[in-house]
From TrEMBL:
Entry keyword Secreted: no
Protein name stated in the entry: FAD-binding domain-containing protein
Organism name: Penicillium steckii
First-listed, main subcellular location of the protein, grouped into a coarse class: membrane
Residue intervals passing through the bilayer: 222-244, 448-466
């Protein structure tokens, strides 16, 4: 280990949350030589959650971390996408996903969430740093340290706490409690940052030779008034699918609903006869399910992302509807930005002050927050676009957006993807070393109205990928 890594090893990061974001942070810190301890309230790689979509800029980071090779062999890159109206008529056959893979030299893929977790977990070298069934329930700070208390009563000390514990983040709530002592209004904004207007059933079903709903590498989208559905065959023998429904009322955290299996069954009885693609319905997919859950689709960006030695990341700080699948990928952008800043700081200041850490956090937020606000807004537009929320969106979906060529959609999406960061302290993959336009997203988008970019992204990526 180099002397600089030895210095960085004097600094300890405490991570709350061991899902895709927490494990990504663990791998990033391990590769950088930064000491950490990760606390997950449940088991690592549980069989919960249905699927995850990975975009090219996230795949680049996974390549740097050495995890992509394990994932690549399990998936079928998505290539085709057909769009259907409420009568079952196909009004657009798109090959934009194939164009994106050609332009960026990486695919957009879809896989079981548990398999992605297994791949990340397997690449952590020192698994003694990973603590399962260990939920952070409290923290306290001093000028030099932060100490967390776990649900079993044990305490762990470090120099920084990262809340990577999802939309119902305990760390975010605890941070709001600290802020509430001096600013009640800000604390309230933090606690109520997310709202929900749509609900989603997401599931995995069998897609075998006896009953194949759609061919491998294909995506089907169907648009109904007030609801929509999508199915994607991203893994051989499986189909990942989603039913998006507008809720009867808008709710806010902490009062967003929690749904049971009975709630999901009730929705299937209501919408089950709706076609998703040629010859099969939501009920058909439900009857062949392997796993399924119903959740609210929270949306929002937290107003303040850090306080003293505590910082938030991923769904704990920005939550997008899942239709375009940009939320999880956005979290990996956050991993890159935050880790890059910490690596640079610790090389110069092995035991940084709160002020030095806050400077890194400011840079992280300055890079991540505008991107998060764009993704959250765009994702919400896509959700409402696919559910035909207004007559304008219905008209645009069927008659305007299909006129935009797949080639232009792919180029505009590529400009967005290329704007994502990578781990600057690790070598770039060979694919990127001589890549043109790696930094070109601002140049490409300059002068193009945001409405045009949003419209092309609507069908460039659409409701294919889950966060």
């Amino acid at each position: 280990m180099t002397s600089s890594n030895q210095k960085m090893n004097d600094f300890t990061v405490l991570i709350a949350g061991g899902s895709l974001v927490g494990l990504g942070l663990a791998l990033s810190f391990e590769r950088a030589g930064i000491n950490y301890e990760l606390f997950e309230k449940g088991e690592f790689a549980p069989q919960l959650g249905a699927s995850i979509g990975l975009h090219p800029h996230t795949i680049r980071i996974l390549e740097q971390l050495g995890a992509w090779s394990d994932i690549e062999g399990q998936v079928v890159p998505l290539q085709g996408r057909n769009h259907y109206d409420e009568k079952g008529d196909c009004f657009e056959k798109s090959h934009v996903l194939r164009h994106i893979q050609r332009v960026l030299r990486r695919p957009i893929i879809f896989m079981e969430r548990c398999k992605a977790l297994e791949a990340l977990h397997s690449h952590v070298i020192d698994k003694s740093k990973l603590h399962s069934n260990s939920a952070v329930v409290f923290y306290e700070e001093s000028d030099e340290e932060v100490t967390v208390t776990l649900n079993n009563g044990t305490k762990h000390r470090g120099n920084l706490l990262i809340g990577a514990d999802g939309v119902h983040s305990k760390v975010r709530d605890l941070m709001a409690d600290k802020i509430n002592q001096t600013d009640e209004s800000l604390a309230k904004d933090i606690r109520e940052a997310f709202s929900s207007e749509y609900n989603c059933i997401f599931a995995v079903s069998r897609n075998g030779s006896e009953k194949q709903f759609l061919p491998d590498a294909m995506v089907h989208n169907v648009y109904y008034p007030g609801y929509s559905a999508v199915s994607a065959a991203g893994v051989h023998g499986l189909v990942f699918w989603f039913l998006f429904m507008k809720a009867s009322e808008l709710t806010k955290l902490p009062d967003c609903p929690r749904f049971t299996d009975e709630d999901a069954e009730k929705c299937i009885r209501k919408y089950g006869s709706s076609l998703v693609g040629p010859g099969y319905t939501i009920q058909d997919l439900w009857d062949n399910r392997v796993k399924a859950s119903m959740v609210p689709l929270e949306e929002g960006v937290v107003k303040q992302w850090f306080h003293n030695r505590v910082v938030l990341i991923g769904d704990a700080v920005h939550k997008a509807t899942v239709n375009p699948g940009l939320g999880g990928n956005l979290a990996y952008e956050g991993i890159a930005r935050l880790t890059n800043g910490l690596v640079s700081l610790l090389k110069e200041s092995p035991r940084p002050s709160i002020e030095e850490l806050n400077t890194v956090f400011d840079t992280y937020v300055a890079g991540q927050k505008p991107r998060a606000e764009t993704v959250v807004d765009l994702s919400g537009q896509i959700t409402r676009y696919e559910a035909q929320d207004t007559w304008i969106l219905k008209f645009a979906a069927k008659y305007l957006v299909p006129l935009v060529s797949d080639s232009l959609k792919a180029k505009l999406y590529a400009s967005f993807s290329r704007g994502g960061p990578w781990l600057e302290y690790l070598p770039l993959p060979t694919t990127d070393i001589h890549s043109e336009g790696l930094h070109s997203s601002k140049d490409f988008c300059r002068g193009i109205p945001m409405l045009v970019i949003s419209a092309t992204l609507l069908v460039g990526v659409g409701s294919v990928f889950l966060v």
